[in-house]
Amino acid sequence: MDANSLKAFLTVxxxxxxSEAAEILHLTQPAISKRLAALEHxxxxxxxxRSHRQLRLTDAGARLxxxxxxxxxxxxxxxxxxxxxxxxxEGELQIIASHHIGLHxxxxxxxxxxxxxxxxxxxxxxxxxxxxxxxxxxxxAELAFVTLSDSMASQFTVFDQWSDPMxxxxxxxxxxxxxxxxxxSDLASYPALLPDTTTATYRVVSRLFLEANLPLxxxxxxxxxxxxxxxxxxxxxxxxxxxxxxxDSIRRLDLGFPVTRVLGAVGLTGRQLSGAARALxxxxxxxxxxxAEGADRAR
Length: 299
Known about the structure:
This protein is α/β, with parallel strands linked by helices. The protein has helices spanning 3-15, 18-25, 29-43, 59-83, 99-104, 106-116, 129-137, 184-187, 200-211, 225-233, 275-288, 290-298; strands at 48-49, 56-57, 91-97, 120-126, 143-147, 156-170, 192-193, 238-242, 251-253, 259-268. Helices cover 45% and strands 19% of the residues.
């Protein structure tokens, strides 16, 4: 099987469109169709059902899909193995970052990385963590910096992780901000401004209320923490935000127990990292764990 034909097949499946696949691969639509037709002829079976408005995999196409990804991953790994002969760290590095990491962590990493590795061309995408996992499955980036999920699939490898302490917060004029030591029961009486129910942050908070047998009243869900912070600051409800975002516009509520989530760098299991990706992970480790790095140097 030809690697280019497999790549065309996977891109059409991932994009759901011949025209979008052609745009991504910088080919004409007839060229994409020709590659897919050649693959189907070689295998002796149709891989895509074109009879509907939306492209669908045939049974044979669904069976081929995981094998096609593994074949292209092995070709990628072979290229990475051969590239280790070169000491130069250069080329394109495709990464994804959640919006929060992009605002509060990425600038420090990239300031140093671009200075130390000027030969690397960065391609950045910003999106919610759940969407980032899906893009990684489609091999649309080499690394993703996201909120780690306790239900993360085994196909992902965590290369580094660090705690992101969070705090219950309310606006300065909110009744909760004037309560000396609010409890979960106090919070249950007011609207909660939280991310979508699919996020790790929501699950952490929801679990606390579930264990306390208390109702949770989420309002206007949005995954943009800056937007949640704004709505909290004007008194629309209480929230849980990273400590790094707490400033004079909101008040921290001391409930007497810690809340945290875990952020991290993930890649695909079985798919080797480029030298540029490994270099970026090293920068992230040194920036996010400076005490550990200092201890290692001391030893």
